Amino acid sequence: MFYKTQSYLQFLWKSTNEHGVHSPFVFNYVTQCLYGKKQYPKNKTMDVLLKSMAHFNFKNIHAHNLEVKQHVKSKFPAITFESSIFDLIYADDLHKQQFKKLFLEGRLHNDSMILINGIHNNPKTWQQWKELITLPEITVSIDMFYCGALFIRREQVKEHFTIRI
Fold first, then answer.
1. Strands, E, within 94-158: which ranges?
2. How high is the mean pLDDT of the chain?
3. For position 1, what pLDDT does the model report?
């Protein structure tokens, strides 16, 4: 509990809102999606997941968590979970090696998004997050405390954002 409290205070110190964002892609994502009026009841990570799916019009997602799959399917009945290439990957835990395997297998494309739940839960998940954002394939990373979003966008300069939601 102490770790999470300390982590949250550090997050608040570093974080910003849309006014601290100078990337047009991230600015649009934050203002039109994350700060949008529509709220999905559940938790912050689920809200980000569902808003992102609607904003980017994702069709193929990957999630191991059955509760997440059921919730997503209830809001977006046309979503496909069984695909060879994913628009969005939702993970409660993702190691650098798992990401590299997915990337090398061609399961991710330019404009794929990876949403990781609980990146500040403990030192281990925070370390995994820090390793993932250093990978050259990841060009945009957004730390939202409750979750983190990684984007593969070859046309964009590598940037990291810490955004309050």
1. 108-117, 140-143, 147-151
2. 94
3. 67
- Only one residue has tokens 């984007």, namely 151
Phi-psi domain of 82 (left: phi exceeds 0; alpha: psi -120 through 50; beta: other): beta
Of 37, 130, 153, 146, nearest in space to 163 by CA: 146
| DSSP string computed for 39-106 | --SS-HHHHHHHHHHHHHT--BEEE--HHHHHHHHHH-TT-BS--SSEEEEEES---HHHHHHHHHTT
Convert the pLDDT of each residue in 93-126 to its tens digit.
Answer: 999 999 999 999 999 999 999 999 999 999 999 9
Locate 135 and state its tokens.
Answer: 């990978």
Q: Are 73 and 49 in contact (CB under 8 A)?
A: no
Calpha distance 98→34 (Å, rounded): 27
pTM of the model: 0.94
What residues pair up with 149 in beta bridges, in sequence order?
A: 115, 142
In DSSP terms, which residues pair with 117 in a beta bridge?
147
Question: Tokens standing for 108?
Answer: 């991710």
| Cα dihedral 10, 13, 15, 19 in deg (nearest 10) | 180
Select from 165, 123, 132 the least CA-distant residue to 150. Answer: 132
